[in-house]
Amino acid sequence: MSGEKVVIIGAGLSGLSAGKVLKEAGVDVLILEAQDRVGGRTLSPGHPKYGWIDLGAAFVGPTQDAVLNLIDELGLETYKIYNDQPFLHYSNGKRNTYMTQWPTLWWRNPLAKWDLWYNMKKMDAMCWHVNPKEPWKSPNAHEWDSMTVQEWMDRNFWTRFASSLAEIDAKEFFTSQVHTNVTADPCQVSLLWYLWYVRCADGMFRIWNCHGGAQERKILGGSQQMSLRIAQLLGDSRVVLNATVTKVSQVESGVEVTTLDGRMFSGTHAIMALPIPQQQRIHFRPHLRAIRAQLNQRSTMGACLKAQFYYPEAYWRKQGEKEGQGVNGFVTCGDGTNFCGNVVDDGREGLKEGAMTVFVYTKNAVKATEMTSNECRDALVSSLAEIFQDDRMKNVRIASFLPSFPSLVTSFLSQVFFKFGFKQPLEYHEKHWMKEPFIRGCYTSFFPPGALTTYGEALKAPFGRVHWAGTETASCWSGYMDGAIRAGKRAARELYLTFTLGAKPDLSTLQVLHAVGRIPFADNWEEEPENKKVPHVPVRLTFMERHPPHPLLVLLAYSILIPATGLGIFILIKHLY
């Protein structure tokens, strides 16, 4: 396309996807990246023994058609993660293994199960009332954006009227689920934003599941391959590394982008494909609209550390004290006493060793940035050895070449899997995303109450010649690799319309233009054809998981059933004797 040149800021999946679409349409593109690599929040360093290690975004699953179609287009393959055995929820020295959608939480109060199941279903129903493209226009937007997820939890978990112990169990798992989904505390996050995030992920069941869900698969060779291969397709001259953008100026001829070392790159338009909080590092001329600046100021990156362990074999899959007590390695923990929040078995075909991915979230991730390996080892190994009354836990060693705090996470894993024969890891690798100077967190950024309903309309609205990409702007699988790709393609298609038509037409006009062959797409530019290799499948749920009773009804049933059973036994005994 003659005369048009787009400068894209950020060489993650979103920026590279935008560049790919524009290049294929004949538009000249230039992508500037502050780091010395492409990939953004994906990172898959090679390993001489294990092939690769995914230290960033990695999981894909059904309905994530943008990333799955890109995987196929680039000649990559996926594999399913291991989840054939029970899941495990850990809390204060207690283990709850389960094969259902959510834990049964049996150890304190059996009613806690229904407290949890009912509220999970309730939140799932709520998320389907959120407009995924414009959540601030949802029917209950102002009500839901006036409270945090924590406030909703406090209002809806019924056990405040009954056993406070049951409330702790149910709310604790709900908290760990929020941590795992968005790497933020429930008290930090707007209820509207969280519902929107879950709605973008096809609901509470899809976002949490392995089979048929967001954690079903990973990419052979690592997720960063997608970015590397797109960059190769674009050509070295179109991707400039170590180019930290500090200023974006809109001038009469287009845009001028200035880097920290004084270089200037010119184009007719620009696409901003950075995490929203990182956009505050850039000076805009003219200044951003006040509503966009306010939106940026209220966006916060999640707090997350991702670690990878390797063992001689997958001990956690083996039988424990009793036959058949192995677990699949998927663990949640939200009791506040351990640094690990989530654990996933990372074994795959051809890997003889056991592999385990560990996530550390929120306050614990922040705390870890200030802790030395020895401090973590002394504090946690001693306490865990006391809990399990096992001196072997005190002998956890840290190889001198390993960074940060491997024994901290190792100790937790030993605690969780001790009865299943957990042993010293062969290797440890980690990535603390809060320490990345041009990202400063993971997985995504979130909004507090009031932000979306007040400033949300600026999320995707172009600012003159500057358009916005990034996974945070996606209306499907926001926060995921899939959302990043969709957002990049949407921003590129917006510019394509600007170049070909001079404006962005409404949906009906788009469909007409597509029908007559003027443009190659007809919808809102985020729609994707269903992937043929990984089709859309429903999440497997039992009847009770789909229709959990209110806990008070369960309590009422217990109050009738237990006395009636006792009376029946009494009558039977009296009749017999």
UniProtKB/TrEMBL annotation:
One of its GO terms (molecular function) is monoamine oxidase activity. It is an enzyme of class 1 (oxidoreductase). Its EC number is 1.4.3.-. The keyword Lipid metabolism does not apply. Its cofactor is FAD. It is a single-pass type IV membrane protein. Substrate binds at F359. The keyword Lipid biosynthesis does not apply. Residues 13-495 form the Amine oxidase domain. Belongs to the flavin monoamine oxidase family. Catalyzes the oxidative deamination of primary and some secondary amines such as neurotransmitters, and exogenous amines including the tertiary amine, neurotoxin 1-methyl-4-phenyl-1,2,3,6-tetrahydropyridine (MPTP), with concomitant reduction of oxygen to hydrogen peroxide and participates in the metabolism of neuroactive and vasoactive amines in the central nervous system and peripheral tissues. Preferentially degrades benzylamine and phenylethylamine. This is Amine oxidase. It comes from Darwinula stevensoni.
